[in-house]
Write a structure and sequence with these properties.
The relative contact order is 0.13. The protein has a domain at about 105-365: Aspartate Aminotransferase, domain 2, CATH 3.40.640.10. It has about 475 residues and is of the alpha/beta class. The protein has helices spanning about 5-15, 15-35, 45-50, 65-75, 95-110, 120-135, 150-165, 170-175, 190-200, 220-230, 255-265, 320-325, 355-390, 420-435, 465-480; strands at about 145-150, 180-185, 205-210, 210, 215, 235-240, 265-270, 295-300, 310-315, 395-400, 405-410, 440-445, 450-455. It contains 15 helices and 13 strands. About 40% of the residues lie in helices and about 10% in strands. It has a seven-stranded mixed beta sheet, with helices on both faces. A four-stranded antiparallel beta sheet has the order 10-11-13-12. A two-stranded antiparallel sheet has the order 4-5.
Length: about 475
């Protein structure tokens, strides 16, 4: 293309006609998912999908019709349909449409979030959303935070702040000898050990507390902390979990906070999944004691039903977060003693960061706290209903009472198979069920056994879909057993 042709294409692509071609794909995608028609996931082999994209880099651009056709026929056709009511898989939401459309607006604006001069309105949107969430968590007037890419980045940033409090010179000097330890439950998310490794503490310095009913045994924590003190091993932070990945269980934050306060230890709460219970009048009690935490990881792209990515880190003392990044960048940050800085880059791991807070702000404007909380309540209610169905079914056993929208269970068949044989059967059951396109669930290991796992995270799912799930899994299970 000539320069004039390139500019002409640029202006054409900026029109509503072109935008409508792309947006219509998304609208059709959501409308079709809502009906529950078609397969939940791809029935095409990975090799065949890969072959579809086995092509050289385009030297010249294509016409719009070609590009739209490729999106429709090659990308969307075999993508996982998270908005399908039979999707009950990983902790990735069927996003609220209003938030998805706003995501496109944020991309069009492309206001970077490192400094206010690049994001004169978005900066205040993010700070207001952070303020709302800090207030919901009860963290107090000195609290603050930042948006992140998700819970992993949020936990990493929180541990950097905890490191700065324990070892104020660690940014310049490193940790040297005698690295501190980080304490967490045995079912904590892998983000904890990943963060510990990244910041140079070392994964061997992770000390785990045994579990009680798939949550940290809060009664055992004081003994663990006393033992570490006696051994002369400083504790950088204790990481509690609100909404464990495997089971959705909530740690006892009150007792954990008691132990941390008695030892003067930073308490970080991984609430990536469960912190959204703060929006619910029915379930916020599960976070009792959260107001005593030093930091909180929270993922709106889970139970607030935001499109990826939208994570947050909240801290009880905002200054602690800024001290975690003791760097100077005079070409960006221009704070003075006379005028406070609104720049967000001084408290964030990332510099190039999009305005993900905008979609959260819009969703709250549209639905309010009660609306988002209502979705949370409904999804938990469905999960309780699934638990009841499985408990009454002779061929399934639920493995825990659901505290949120996650449930683990096991297919036991007619009772003739050993635990080892059931491990194989449950794994194959999930693979065959998902491969049928009828629905989509996950598996995990619990107490050394392979189990089935469901996350109900789509408001379009109904009780009728739960019946369809149980019936469909039974059909596959019976086929694997070789019984009618």
């Amino acid at each position: 293309m000539t320069r004039d042709q390139l500019l002409g294409t640029l202006e054409t692509d900026a029109t509503s006609d072109t935008a409508s071609r792309i947006v219509e794909l998304a609208v059709t995608w959501l409308e079709r998912a809502h009906t529950g028609e078609g397969a939940v996931s791809s029935l095409t082999t990975p090799a065949d999908v890969a072959a579809r994209f086995d092509e050289p880099l385009p030297v010249e651009g294509h016409e719009l019709d070609y590009v739209v056709g490729r999106l429709r026929d090659d990308v969307l056709r075999d993508a996982n349909r998270l908005s399908h009511p039979m999707y009950m898989g990983h902790q990735v939401s069927a996003p609220l449409p209003i938030a998805a459309w706003t995501d496109a607006l944020a991309s069009a604006m492309n206001n970077g979030m490192a400094v206010m001069e690049m994001s004169p309105t978005m900066t205040h949107v993010e700070q207001r959303v952070i303020r709302w969430m800090c207030d919901l968590a009860g963290l107090g007037p000195s609290s603050g935070g930042t948006f992140t890419s998700g819970g992993t980045e949020a936990t990493l940033t929180a541990l950097l702040a905890a490191r700065a409090r324990l070892r104020p010179d660690s940014w310049e000097q490193g940790l040297g000898t005698g690295a501190p330890v980080v304490v967490c439950g045995e079912h904590a998310h892998y983000a904890v050990s990943r963060a510990v490794g990244i910041i140079g503490v070392g994964v061997r310095q992770v000390v785990t507390v045994p579990s009680d009913a798939y949550r940290m045994n809060a009664n055992a924590l004081p003994g663990v902390l006393s033992r570490l003190t006696d051994e002369g091993r400083p504790v950088m932070a204790v990481v509690a979990t609100s909404g464990h990945t495997a089971t959705g269980s909530f740690d006892d934050l009150t007792r954990i906070a008691d132990a941390c306060e008695s030892h003067g230890i930073w308490l970080h709460v991984d609430g990536a999944h469960g912190a959204s219970a703060l929006l619910s009048t029915q379930h916020r009690h599960r976070l009792r004691g959260l107001e005593r935490a030093d930091s909180l990881a929270w993922d709106p792209h889970k139970m607030m039903l935001m499109p990826l990515a939208a994570g947050m880190l909240l801290v009880r003392d905002e200054q602690r977060l800024e001290r975690a990044f003791a760097q100077q960048a005079p070409y960006l940050f221009h704070a003075t003693d006379d005028e406070p800085s609104y720049d967000m880059g001084t408290r964030s791991l990332l510099c190039s960061r999009r305005a993900d807070a905008l979609k959260v702000w819009v969703a709250l404007q549209r639905y309010g706290q009660s609306g988002i909380g209502g979705f949370y309540d409904y999804l938990v209610e469905l999960t309780v209903g699934l638990h009841q169905r499985l408990a009454a079914h002779p061929r399934f056993v639920p493995l825990h009472e659901p505290e949120t929208n996650i449930l683990c269970f096991r297919y036991i068949g007619g009772g003739e198979l050993s635990d080892e044989e059931l491990d194989v059967l449950n794994r194959e059951l999930r693979e065959r069920y998902n491969g049928s396109g009828e629905g989509w669930i996950t598996t995990t290991n619990l107490d050394g056994r392979r189990v089935l796992r469901v996350t109900i995270i789509n408001p379009r799912t109904t009780e009728a879909h739960l019946d369809r799930l149980v019936a469909g899994m039974e059909v596959v299970g019976r086929a694997l057993e070789g019984v009618g």
